Amino acid sequence: QVHLAESGGGLLQPGGSGRLSCVSSDLFLPNYAMGWFRQAPGKEREGIACISNTDGTTYYSDSVKGRFIISRDNAKNTAYLHMNSLKPEDTAVYYCAANYYNCDLKTMDYWGRGTLVTVSS
User: What's the 3-state SS for the chain?
Assistant: First the structure.
């Protein structure tokens, strides 16, 4: 059973911006730390961002720090990944995931099916 659904992927321009959304129809996302991951062709899945469910603390991998912003709208039961200054190497399938306790990217409890982001001119 899939509890999370990502949207917002597609073809984006290098240097451009995009926004991914993650929603759930059955999980109360304010109870969860939310993370974003990505997997590029031929590479391992990489945890790139996380936002706490307690104090809003955020974490970013070095590969996206300063370019991507994770946020959440608890009223909409949604998490977002705002992507700026996109590079071709950002091309990947992006997944959102939820952890009931904290931003431990190695132990996420629920996953979405992913959305493909392609950065190309």
Answer: CCCEEEECCEEECCCCCEEEEEECCCCCHHHCEEEEEEECCCCCCEEEEEECCCCCCEEECCCCCCCEEEEEEHHHCEEEEEECCCCHHHCEEEEEEEECCCCCCCCCCEEECCEEEEECC
The percentage of the chain sitting over the pLDDT mark of 70, rounded to a whole number, equals: 100
For residue 2, the model assigns a pLDDT of 77
**In whole angstroms, what is the distance from residue 109 CA to residue 104 CA?**
10
Task: Quote the pLDDT of residue 1.
Answer: 76
Residue closest to 78 by CA, chosen among 120, 44, 112, 117: 112
The pair of three-digit structure tokens given for residue 104, joined into one six-digit string: 């431990």
